[in-house]
Every structure is written in C-alpha cells, then in structure tokens.
Amino acid sequence: MPDLLLLSSINHATFQMKKKRNVAKQTYNFEKEIHNYCLSCGNDITHPLCPNCIAKAFEEWIKKFPEAKQIKAKLKPFMKYHNHIEAKSKPCVVCQKSVHVCPLCFTTHLHKLVKEAGLGVRPTIEFLFIFNFDFDHNGYSEELEVYGGY
Ligand SMILES: [Zn+2]
Ligand SMILES: [Zn+2]
After folding, report:
1. Residue 70: exposed, middle, or buried by beta-carbon count in 10 A (0-12, 13-18, 19+)?
2. Separation of 150 CA from ligand 1 center, angstroms?
3. Looking at CB atoms within 10 Å, which of 9, 33, 38, 148 has the fewest?
4. pLDDT at 90 over 80
5. Ligand 2 center–CA 82 separation, angstroms
6. Ligand 1 center to residue 37 CA distance, Å?
C-alpha cells in the first residue's frame, strides 16, 4: 500500500511542475515505460477515453458557435503535446491509442477554453452536460450545480 501522504505530495509536486512549465513544450523520455496514470493529475486513468476521441466530439459540438475556429486553434497545442508522447499507456476504449491524460483533466481543459471564449451560460451548461467526466464532483460539475442545482 502506498503511503497516502506521500502520494498526495507527489501529486502536488506534479501539479506544481505543470504550472511552472509550458505544457506544450514538455517532452518525455521514457518511451519504453508503460504508465497507467494521468500525466496531468497523476491519478490512475480509470476511464480510458483519449483526448483525440473526446476532441472529435468536442469539435463537432462547437461547430455551431462562431467562436469555434478560435477554440480549435487554442486546443491545437495540447493535442500536439499529447500525441507526441511516445510512452505506452492504457489503450483508449474507442481507438486503442494510448491515453496519457485522463478524460477529467482533458475536459477540464476544454471547459477552460469554453469559458475563455465567452460562449455564455447556456452553451457552458450544455458543455457540462455532454462532456461531464467529473464523476466524483470535485471539479467543474460544481459549476453545473451553481447554475441550476442539477
Ligand atoms: Zn488527470
Ligand atoms: Zn481514442
């Protein structure tokens, strides 16, 4: 059993690292390693659905908004970063490619892009409904509760 305190301090360190460094420029040199944890939050990837598959659905969804182009452009660096990681990870349940960042971290990033683009309350609620991976209700789903007590 790993020490929980140690584990949380590692997660904390990972988070600090992530904050300090430009995520898009990070490179990993552990090609032969297999990791089952999210490179962003350090938690086990329990719902292996890769950012590419989620992004496909997301890009389909934002098509109807005039800000779609702008959001897609902002998403690009992340996708590039993710798809350049050569380590092996859990296979995506849809496309079988390695999942390096968990759906919760990725959709948290998408949520940030939606907010930054200023789509407004209705689209944001819609987003939270469609792309909700916050099963433990520790993240963005709290916002949904604020909007309407769902
Ligand atoms: Zn994560
Ligand atoms: Zn996939």
Report:
1. middle
2. 24
3. 148
4. yes
5. 12
6. 8
**Model confidence, pTM:** 0.75
Angle between the 103-117 and 121-130 helix axes, to the nearest 10 degrees? 170
Closest of 118, 41, 32, 37 to residue 74, by C-alpha:
118
Report CA(40)–ligand 1 centroid distance (Å): 5
Q: How far apart are CA 121 and CA 18, in angstroms?
A: 29
Which ligand lies nearest to the CA atom of residue 138 in the structure?
A: 1
Residue 109 and residue 39 in contact, taking contact as beta carbons nearer than 8 Å: no
Q: Distance, CA 44 to ligand 1 centroid (Å)?
A: 8
Average pLDDT, the chain: 82
Strand, coil or helix: what is 141? helix
How far away, in angstroms, is 92 Cα from ligand 2 center?
A: 5
Edge-to-edge strands of the sheet including 34-35? 34-35, 88-91, 98-99
